[in-house]
Amino acid sequence: MHDGTERKHSSMRPGGWKWRLFLRSFLLQAVWNPRGMQDVGFFFAMAPLARTMDDEERREFLKRHMGFFNTNPVLAPYIIGAVARAEMEGRGAEEAEEIKKALGGVLGMAGDALMWGGLRPAAGLIAAAVALYGLQTGIWGVWTAPVVMLVVYNVPHIFLKARGVARGLSVGPEAASELLGRGFRRAVLATRWAGAFAAGFVLALAAFGTESGGLASAVVMGAFLVLGAVAARLRIPSTLVAAAGAVGGIILMVSGFHGG
Amino acid sequence: MNDGIAILILALMAGAVAVDTTAALQLMFSQPVVAGMLAGLVVGEAATGLMVGLTLQLVWAGVLPVGGAGFPDAGVAAVVGAGSAGLLASQGHPTGWAVATGLLVALATGWVGRIVVTGLRRRNIQLADRARDAVLAGDLRGVQRAVIRAIGIRFSTSALLAAAVIGLALVIAARLLPETGPETYPALVWAAPLSVGAAVAVSRGWGGRVSVAAGLVAGAVLLALM
């Protein structure tokens, strides 16, 4: 298997593999399920490597790559690239499972912290600040906030995915160590603080930039500030808290309070 | 634009943002501030759609879709909420009532969507089994079929949900909403503090609190300079 697989795979340009693995990584969670999680998506990403195999090789390949797998989808290409490299060099049987287990958890936690806990809320809150300022002042169009959201999130998102495949193919599992240096922790903190700054900015615009109800506005805002913090800490579904807020808003509106 | 055509376009849009949420791409077209504005644009009420999307963005700012945890279907909810609000406003209902209705409908859709997504993900186990059997039988395309089917089911389920909820919202609103009323709804008075609370809880520690305070001061200074 080693010689044959290596020979067949080497017939494709390295850039071709990078491109295929990169594109397929965007479908990693298409068949997400509670049993194997990203199992089908991971196999789908690796599937082009199996095309040149005979039945027996394909069975072994399937066993290696369609078992339980879960990690952060944005950093998953680091694993996809590293595993593809091991497979291309004929070391898949020995190393693939080990790479997936070793990096899946680590990159899952790191990626969730950076992307879901940091960058995504930050991008959303920055876009919200832009939207609110735009609605209040009319100085820019309604397109601005959505464009800000898409750019702030997707530039790092696509960069990390592309770099993950490229570095994984080039240096294998060490690519993850390169990523998770001291700079990574700083990046997580920076995105979280950026999100918190944008949230404070939105609060200022909402509190002082609209035709507000003075004391009533301050009391309602203070109550919801506490509620928001408590709900997030206690993991109370924000939808429930927001539904209460929406009904409260209707009561305020009917009673003649139109601030915000 | 005819309401039926508008609902059809909004349903297709809801299907597309549902797929973007987790199944494919994840380019964040499913974020409420994006999906809401686009839905508003479809019904000729882009600013109303942006207002609804902005509010929902703040409401769900602290939601972390980590691992197998359920999460509100925010993208579909934004399309439904902004679309309903925009259609009601374009029909001549007071904007305050249109936005309030859109937000309540969106929150309900987000909650229903969470249940739908959980159900679809359980159903994906069958697709995974079929894909595995196909590959073992030498049919590698079985994996592609599973991926396409899962995306198709997510798209169509969300599109149908969106069409049903928007249609229902319009029928109910036509009977219940008053003909006159305020043109503004105080969404930000409750949504903005909610987002700050969530941001502080997520960022934890003094760094997050100082950042919120800095943002608050920066916003106030900017407004003072205007």
Please sum up the structure shown.
Chain A contains 11 helices and no strands.
Query: Uncertain runs of chain B with pLDDT below 50, 5 residues or more?
Result: none
Counting structural domains of chain B, the number is: 1
Q: What oligomeric state best describes the polypeptide chains here?
A: heterodimer
Share of helix among residues of chain B?
Answer: over 70%
Order of helices and strands of chain A: HHHHHHHHHHH
| Main pleated sheet of chain B | none
Strand content of chain A: under 5%
Order of helices and strands of chain B: HHHHHHHH
Alpha-carbon distance between the two ends of chain A = 67 Å
**Mean pLDDT over the residues of chain A:** 87
Number of DSSP strands of chain A? Answer: 0
| Cα radius of gyration of chain A in angstroms | 24 Å
The total count of helices of chain B amounts to 8
Round the mean pLDDT of chain B to the nearest integer and report it: 92
Architecture overview:
The complex is a heterodimer of chains A (260) and B (226). Chain A is elongated and about 75 Å long. Chain A folds into two domains: 103 residues, no CATH class; 144 residues, no CATH class. Chain A contains eleven helices and no strands. Chain B has eight helices and no strands. Chain B is mainly alpha-helical and 226 residues long. Chain B has one domain. At the A-B interface, α3, α4, α6, α7 and α9 of A face α2, α3, α5, α6 and α7 of B.
